[in-house]
Here is the input.
Amino acid sequence: MNRHAGHGTAIAAVIRNTCAAALAVACLIGLAACSSPATTADDGVRDKPAGGVTAETTTGTSDDADDSAAGPAADLSTAELETIAKRFTACLVGKGFDAKVTASYALLPVGSTAEAAPQTTVVVRRLGVDGTPIIPGPGMEISGDSDPLYPDVMYSIVSADEGMWVGFKNSKALAGSIYADKQADYAACERENPDFAQPNYSANVTAAGGASAAGSDAEAQKTLIDFARQARKDGFDWMADPAPGEDKSVEIPSDVSYEELRRFYDTYSGDKWPSHDGIPFGTFCTGECTAYNRLIEER
Here is the structure.
């Protein structure tokens, strides 16, 4: 199955060398909860669509019970929060972490574009068991199983363009992970930057507008259904309604021609592409998907 995320998504995953196709995914992942089915050697890959990246709220981490509030920086402006996140990142880099600030897609207000996501989530490079960065590529699978190297991850990115990164809620979450020996350094940066707090991705946080997570999923699927119906009205007869429970991706049939697929993406480019809570949906294709793979590579 070739998957392509929309504009940003989340996962704590086990990666296995079993896929046959190239991997290009951007996804946020909660603890042991995958945003979409795992790939297999027969499925193909999860890939990132014409939109960009996908995001979602995730399950809580080690001390969610102690952090029900938004954090010490809750009342600051977005610009101030971004400055604080950059300062915290600089501290981590100074202590030997490969770290960066990334967009907090899951915190986008309803109707916002991905470009408006605040740059307030701090992530570090995802390392393999040998301590070197994991590079997405051919022969890689993402599973919904918990990764023993990262038992308490709040936020994860897997992208052909960016590579693989993980976000820890705080220094306590590094315990038992491959970064356990850097826990003291991470904690030191927390002490030096007491005004920094990772965005709250707790599953207990309601979606924009006060909807519960289950209600949000139902709304997302309805959006996909409405999009499929509109696409058929626009002449794309091959666009089927999403499968029951599918609330994150638009399915592209494997036998759609390259020319037809280009017309489809051109028709629904930019703001015309379906989204939920301001986050564009991903796409996926099962089977040979020759035209789909070619178009994704070009874009």
User: Anything to note?
Assistant: The mean pLDDT is 73. The longest helix spans residues 213-233. The chain is about 20% helix and 15% strand. Residues 2-192 form one domain.
